[in-house]
Amino acid sequence: MASALRGPEGRRGAWPPLVIGPPIGSAAQAPGRAQERTRGVLLSDRVVAQARRRPDAVAICQWQDSMRYGDLVGAAGALATRLRHRGVGAEHRVGVSCRRSLELPVAALGVLLAGGAYVPLDPSHPRRRLQTIVADAGITTVVVDDVGRQLFEGANLDLVGVDLTESSTPPALPLPDEAAAYVMYTSGSAGRPKGVAVAHRAVVAFADAVAECFPLDDTTRAGSFAAFGFDVSLLDLFVPLTCGASVQLIPDIDRADPRRLERFLAAHHVTWGFIPPALLPLLDPQRLPDLRDVITAGEPPGPEQAGRWSGPGRRFHNWYGPTETTVCVVGTELSGTWDRPLPIGLPLGRSTAYV
């Protein structure tokens, strides 16, 4: 393609041949290409399985606050029971309006365990945008913390609080894997928010693809940076929870300042995580010695970032994918010096990409 752009008047036969490399990951594994798709498994099933395996392991940590896997699923199970009693069932769209605190993952998981599809309603977003999303998604129930409750007080909505002290076995609910797990709202081509519903089977397939690329396990300390209303939050919040990792949930005050973000990542010994391209040049990789894997996505990173963020003991990954195809569908590991735009890589897992 570069040759064609440099000399469009030339003959096609004079262009260099297109060479396709192996899928990302080790060439010996060729990750995901021959595996059968996991069937009949829900995103919430994976998190519950980790809680049964290691209930006392830390699931979520944010400075001095933390929550174990058993407590996470117990609190989410209690919330799910209350939601079911309020009429929430299969694929009901349920809003989640919480700050970036321990209540947030409990709220989202509780909606999933109730059979619903969660719809992020970020309290920091303009009220008019949130009202548009509520109306478009047909939301009648919103799970809230104290900030979310103040935001929606007086609206004709059923507001359900999160209680971290509650604990209950998640309710049994047969749900097909094609049921929606969440609905993300993008800006839309005309500026009006556009809802994209994503099924459990698609999210589980994405989680499997991520796990094939990285050795995520109970030794992983995953930094969760992505805004909850951005689908990359599935990558750095829910996917690690399906693998038994410890999620280090970065609060908004630390997300907003590069120096504070560095301190959080270093103090929490984050080993794996997503950093948006705009922040890459503002952070110093040398101050983050524990960070072994960096994923960036959302917009093209500067070519110089590949060299800055790769090296002995650290890998740099550039991924891409529209919301409609479940977070990211292509990606690659990059290193060294680049004098041209960075490639977005090859298909992840069982995805197929066409040019």
What this model shows, in words?
This protein has 355 residues and is α/β, with parallel strands linked by helices. It has one domain: Rossmann fold (3-Layer(aba) Sandwich). Helix content is 30%, strand content 19%. It has 11 helices and 15 strands. The chain has helices at 2-6, 43-53, 69-85, 103-113, 127-137, 146-152, 200-213, 232-242, 252-255, 258-267, 305-308; strands at 58-62, 65-68, 93-97, 117-120, 141-144, 158-161, 180-186, 194-199, 221-224, 246-249, 272-274, 293-296, 315-320, 330-334, 346-347. Helix 3 packs across helix 4 (103-113). The longest helix is centred in the first third of the chain and has 17 residues, at 69-85. The chain is globular, with a radius of gyration of 21 Å.
Structural class by helix and strand composition:
alpha/beta
Rounded to an integer in angstroms, the radius of gyration calculated over CA atoms is: 21 Å
CATH topology category name: Rossmann fold
- Strand order, main sheet: write it out: 2-1-10-9-11-12-13-14-15
H/E series, N to C? HHEEHEHEHEHEEEHEHEHHEEHEEE
Indicate the CATH class.
Alpha Beta
**What is the makeup of the main sheet?**
9 strands, mixed
Total domain count: 1
Any low-confidence stretches, pLDDT <50, length ≥5?
Answer: 19-35
Strand content: 15-25%
CATH-derived architecture: 3-Layer(aba) Sandwich
Mean pLDDT, rounded to whole units? 90
Distance between the termini: 11 Å
Number of DSSP-assigned strands: 15
Shape estimate: globular
Helix content: 25-40%
- The CATH superfamily title: ANL, N-terminal domain
Q: Number of DSSP helices? A: 11
